[in-house]
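Reagents: none. Just compute today. Small RNA 2'-O-methyltransferase.
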Amino acid sequence: MFISISTTGTAERPATDLGFLLHKHPEKVQRFSTAHGMAHVFYPEATELSCTAALLLEVDPVALVRQGRGKGRGGSPDFALAQYVNDRPYAASSLLAVALRTVFRTAMKGVCEHRPDLAGQPLPLRVELPAVPVGGQGDGGAVALVGRLFEPLGWKVDAAAVPLDDAFPEWGDSRYVRLVLTGTLRLAEALQQLYVLLPVLDGAKHYWVAPDEVDKLLDAGEGWLGDHPELGLITRRYLARRWSLTRLAMERIALARLAEADDREAEDFDNAVQDADSADSAGAAGAADGAPKGATGADASAGPAGSGQPGEPDGSAEKAQPLAVQRRESILAALAETGATRVLDLGCGQGELVAALLKDGRITEVLGLDVSSRALAAAARKLRLDRMPERQAARVRLVQGALTYTDARLKGYDAAVLSEVIEHLDLPRLPALEYAVFGAARPGAVVVTTPNVEYNVRWATLPAGHVRHSDHRFEWTREEFTGWAERVAGRYGYTVTVRPVGPLDEEVGAPTQLALFRLTADDPTSSTAATTHSTAVPRTAASTTTASITTASEGSETR
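Predicted 3D structure written out:
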C-alpha cells in the first residue's frame, strides 16, 4: 500500500520545506508501527526544486483476516474479503487513512513548531495513489465518483480505471483506479481530505465504527466538509452507513453552519435543553436563533422566589391555571377558528404544543421545527415517536432549521404557530423571520404569542425593569405588538386580530398577547414585500439545515 506526496519549490522557498511540515527528515528512512503493519516513510527525491515524500504500509493479510473473523471493534467481517484473496495490503483503504493519521498526526493538525510560517501557506501538491478501491460506484462508475469527491475541493483529478486483466480487455474494468491529484492547498488540508475520503471511496472500514468516529469526521472535515456537494454521501459512507451516527453528524454540521453564518458559537444554537443543574432547566427551545424560550409568566410559578424567574402575580389568593396551559388552549382555539388541519409549530422546543396538536383529531399533520438538535431529541422522547402507532406517527415530523432562513419544507401548510419565539431574536433579525414565515412559507394562518411587558409589574419576584427571561432580547407593550402585527399583515397580505391570553388586568392587560393572522381571500402576494425584505434573508435553509428527526414509522430508530 503506497502513497506519495510531492511539491515543487525555488531557491528562496525550497521544496524540501515539505520535511518541516511532515516532521520527517528528508535524509532519513523512518519506520513506524501501526495497528495492522509497519509504515515506512522515505523521500525518493529531495532537492530545493522538487521533493517527494512516500509512505509505504506493509500489512500482514493473514493477521488481518484473523482479526476480521470476530465482531466489534477488533474485527470487521465485511472488510476481510477472504482468507486467500485479500486486497488490503495493496489498495489504499481505511488502513492507509489510519496510517496517515498515525504517522503524520502533527502535520494533519497544521502544526509546525520549527517553521510556524509554513503551516498556513498553500503549496503546489501532487498526490499519487497506484491503487484506490472504489465501491458502490453509482452513476458514471469509479472514475466519476473520484471526481465528484475531490474536484469540489480544488483538486485536478487524473483517475484511470484499472482493467481486470490486461490480457482480456473484454472483461472490463475492476473497481480500482490509479489516482493522481494535483492542486495548491495547505498540506494539513490535503491530509485531512485524504483521511476522510479514502475510506469513503472504498465504502468500508477495517474496524468497528463507534460513536467517536463522528468526532474524527468533523475534526478532519472542518472548513471543507460542510460545504461539499456530496456531504450526505461522504457522511454515510465514512460512518459505515450507521444511520444514528450519520444523523448525529449531520445535525452537528448544520449547527456549525448556522453558527458560522451568524458569527456565533455552535453551543449558542443548541442550548435549548439545559443541563439538570442549570437554573434555567425548565426552558424550552426558541427556534429562531437557538436560544431557550424559558418559562414566561406563570410558566415558572412553581419556582422558588429569587430564582430569577417570575412567580405568581401580587395578590394571587389561589393557584390559577398555569399560563403555559392557558396559552396552549388559546392557540388551539385560534387554530380551530381557521379550520387548519396541517400545522407548523415553529420553535417547537421539547414538543409540548406538538403533543397537544396530536390529541386533536382534526389535525392531520404536524411539522415541528427547531434549531436545537437537543430539543428535537427531547421532543422525540417526550412524544415517544419510537413507540407511537404507525398511523399516529405518520401525522408528525420533527425537523431542524432556523426561522431566519427561508425553507421550502415549510410551504403549503394551513397554519403556523410562533409561540414565545419572536422575543428571542435581536430586533434587526426580526425582518428575516417575517419574510421567511409570511413572505416565503405563506401559510393560510399564523398564530403568534409573546409576553406583554406591561404586565411584568404584577410579578412578585420579577425585579423592576427586568424581562421575564434572561434571553429575551425585547418585550413589547400591547401598543407595540399591535403595531408590529398590523405592519406585517399589511406588508404580506394578511388580516390580523390581537387578543389577550391569561388573567386580564384593567390597568396593564393580560400577561400574554396573541395575534391571529389570516391570509386574505384573494391572496395578493406582495412583490413589494419580497423586494423589500429579500436582502434580510442572505441564505436559504437548504444550505444551512438538515432534516434530522423523522417519524418512527420510517424505521425502528428515531431518526
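The chain has a mean pLDDT of 78.
Action item: order primers for follow-up constructs.
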